[in-house]
Amino acid sequence: MHSGELAPQGFPVVTVVDTQDTWAVFNVREDLLKHFTQGAQFTAYLPALDKSIEFKVTHVAVMGDFATWRSTDATQGFDLRTFEVEARPVTPTEGLRMGMSVVVKL
Fold first, then answer.
1. For the chain, what is the domain count?
2. Interior CA angle at 16 toward 12 and 22, to 5°?
3. Fewer CB within a 10 Å sphere, N or C end of the chain?
């Protein structure tokens, strides 16, 4: 929006973000889920801040069928579900912002 423009009804003109309440969301295939149990802690690298920080898993939930990894050969292997894992920084991290990439190595 620019000065003088009219906003249509229902159009968001302001977005409010609480930068003190931060978390990361990962889509994890079920064969890797053992690394992300509720309450587990892990180290992740944030390229934008060029540093690694500790995260703690706060929520795990199965995703819809659209996120199921399908085996390419029905005689070998099986389908794997995908889970949404939410993790929060263990300590507050200055500069952490919405949309930043978080890299996890297993």
1. 1
2. 130
3. C
